[in-house]
Amino acid sequence: MEPRHGARYDDILALARTTERAGFDAFFRSDHLLGVDPQDPTYLPTDCWTTLGGLARDTTRIRLGALVGAATFRLPGILATIVASVDEMSGGRVELGLGTGWYAREHEAFGIPFPETRERFDRIEEQLAIITGLWRTPTGDPHGFSFSGKHYRVEGNRTPPAPTQVPHPPIIIGGSGPKRTPEIAARYANEFNAALGGDLRERYAIFARACETAGRDPEEARRSAVLPVACGATPSEVDRRGAIIGSDFMRENAAIGSPGLVVDRIAQLRESGADTVYLHIYDIHDLDHIELLGREVLPQVTGPAAVTA
Q: CATH no. for residue 19?
């Protein structure tokens, strides 16, 4: 969920509960502390994993996660512990989406270091090695888990965080980069997200080749896509919801129209190779939008569908 002006927890909870009642499989939020417009004085920042911890206790069925978290925000050992804690709180319903981070102004505004691109990729590789290493280390292992890298070091952790899901919560990695993103995803991801725009079929093919190079069956991983949505039962509803999608890039890749149009766009994503689709919703207070999608769109599609707003 990436609300235009931020959100309070009660707003996020109302949206998540509506998503659950409407029959969706999952509710994902973004991991941002600043809005797309950095000058927006109304933006209310919330911490992604703090709110997911609240949702873990205040929902019962839907899966929860970040699409995607910024690896620059948290040290790997802390993040492994946070996610394992929320996984336990939810009864094993958590997924970890992780990316390199991209919003330089956001980092400046909150005093968070923002290395250059190559270093951010180096860091996320080490972070994933540490997170999965900690999660896979049995409690009581006499040697514990250790890691020595260029950016992070872990020494003899004999009490690693233990998530509820075995071997660990699913990891989502994605993006449009043609080299390092699919290579990292091939090594660590349970799901590869092809992001927005461009040739999704080709991105999935690049990921499949990266899996083969890594000695992994590409079919082991889910393939997902994001679809911005402005759906309405009437032209006026479509116009009102579509007007909120501000950027030309988002509008070009959005499904703006009737429930039937949204169903058709989901089918196109399936034909491109996606088995999971995230519907990106812009107005978090428009709960009728979620209910319409659950009532008119979900019965006509198969496979996992999630709300990310």
A: 3.20.20.30
Q: How distant, in Å, are the alpha carbons of 76, 151, 163 from that of 157?
A: 13, 17, 16
| Residue-level pLDDT at 125 | 97
Q: pLDDT at position 2, please?
A: 56
Between 57-61, 77-81, 142-146, 244-248, the lowest mean confidence (pLDDT) is in 244-248
Q: Which domain holds residue 210?
A: 9-227+258-308
The answer to whether residue 240 is domain-embedded is no
308, containing H or E segment:
strand 305-308
User: Which 3 state secondary structure label does DSSP give 97?
Assistant: strand
**Cα 276 from chain centroid?**
12
Residue 262: left if φ>0, alpha if ψ -120 to 50, beta else—which one?
A: alpha
What would the pLDDT profile of 23-66 be if each residue is shown by its tens digit? 999 999 999 998 878 888 888 899 999 999 999 999 999 999 99
Q: What is the mean pLDDT of the chain?
A: 93
Dihedral in degrees, nearest 10, Cα atoms 241, 242, 246, 252: 150
Tokens matching residue 238: 């479509």
